[in-house]
Amino acid sequence: MMMPRGGALTAVSLMSAIDDPRRFRRSQDIWARLGLSLAATSWGGVDINARISKCGDGLARKLLFEAAHVMLSRTSRPSALKDWAAAAGGRSGF
Question: CA dihedral defined by 44, 47, 50, 52, rounded to 10 degrees?
Fold first, then answer.
């Protein structure tokens, strides 16, 4: 909600996609509901983590991507979330 340009819209979309968070046992289940979990494939007996699955609510996924982009590129205010996201992006590549 504190994000400029669309924080409220992203929050409402996320809450409508998740509905009741108590029905998820693990945080990975929420990511899977939004289509942000890694799709797994097997090739020649070797399990490979592929791209994200993109199953689930496409609008919520798009708004989360846009919010992350705005937070990393257009927000000058320091925050712990921004520092964490920048470190994660540095490890895996933007």
Answer: 140
Is residue 94 one of the residues assigned to a domain?
A: no
Q: How confident is the model at residue 8 (pLDDT cuts 50, 70, 90)?
A: confident
Helix pair angle (7-18, 58-73), 10° resolution = 150
Q: Where are the alpha helices (DSSP H) in 5-94?
A: 7-18, 27-34, 58-73, 80-92
Q: What is the pLDDT of residues 21-45, one digit of tens each?
A: 888 898 888 888 888 877 777 667 6
Judge whether 1 lies within some domain. Answer: no
Do residues 19 and 31 lie in contact, with contact meaning Cβ atoms separated by under 8 Å? Answer: no
Could you tell me the residue range of the domain that residue 84 belongs to? 7-89
The count of domains in the chain is: 1
- Report the b/e string of 15-29 with b at 16+ CB within 10 A: eebeeeeeeeeeeee
